[in-house]
Design brief:
Elements: H1 2-7, H2 13-33, H3 35-44, H4 50-70, H5 85-105, H6 116-126, H7 128-140, H8 149-175, H9 179-225
Helix pairs in contact: 2-3, 2-4, 3-8, 4-5, 4-6, 4-7, 5-6, 5-9, 6-8, 7-8, 8-9
Length: 226
């Protein structure tokens, strides 16, 4: 009877959340090999979680930094003395988030069905092949000769093409589009991303000029008064 009571004991909320997180992390492997039903179930059947998606995004950023720092110098040109870890991560993270925002902003115009959360999760899961391929390549680059670079370059190309294909299929499944409309939507998203980045840069430039003006004005007043 005691054994039966132990078996019927409900799982704690913390353990249940952890199991859900690990399951959604593992589900990424199904998504990258079976993208059509994988992305559909990821969003519509709630097989993915924001925590898992963010974890895969963090692994992508960490992989990129490790790649810059530890890849053999014969295969990558990255001056270590000038590499700032946070700048490198921010240079990838902010455009990624802006692209998700641009995609979500265009959903009304293109009759898309995806929410920002769905778009974000699909884009994060689409980056999984980059981590899975590039992490081992950091080690491989240090044990192969430069003459064998063709093998290295092929794997880099495969990882990039794989990620692009997953982004395409992911957006198609999230918004319930056909291939033709998805192509137009992706192009519009890229243009929207560039416009948003341009507006942000213009705003920061104007803000910097305004701050400089007020600082110089304050200094001039302080100089004349004191």
């Amino acid at each position: 009877m005691n054994a039966a009571k132990l078996e019927s004991k409900p799982m704690s909320p913390r353990k249940e959340k952890w199991n859900q997180f690990t399951d959604s992390m593992k589900y990424a492997f199904h998504v990258i090999f079976h993208p059509f039903d994988g992305f559909w179930d990821l969003i519509h059947e709630k097989r993915g979680t924001l925590a898992a998606a963010t974890t895969w995004l963090a692994l992508f950023l960490i992989t990129r930094v490790l790649e810059l720092m530890y890849t053999n110098f014969q295969f990558i040109n990255a001056p270590l003395q000038y590499i700032n870890v946070f700048e490198q991560m921010a240079s990838l993270l902010f455009p990624f988030l802006i692209m998700c925002l641009a995609n979500w902003s265009l959903t009304t115009l293109f009759d898309g069905k995806g929410r920002f959360k769905d778009i974000y999760m699909a884009m994060c899961y689409a980056l999984v092949p980059y981590t899975l391929i590039h992490l081992p390549l950091i080690f491989v680059s240090n044990i192969i000769a430069f003459d064998e670079a063709a093998f290295y370059d092929v794997l880099l190309t495969v990882s990039t093409a794989w990620c692009v294909l997953l982004v395409f299929i992911g957006l198609m499944q999230v918004h319930d589009y056909g291939p033709g409309k998805t192509i137009i939507f992706v192009i519009a998203t890229i243009l929207g991303t560039l416009i948003i980045i341009f507006l942000i840069l213009v705003f920061l430039s104007l803000l910097s000029d305004a701050l400089s003006y007020f600082v110089s004005l304050y200094r001039e007043i302080a100089f004349r008064l004191y």
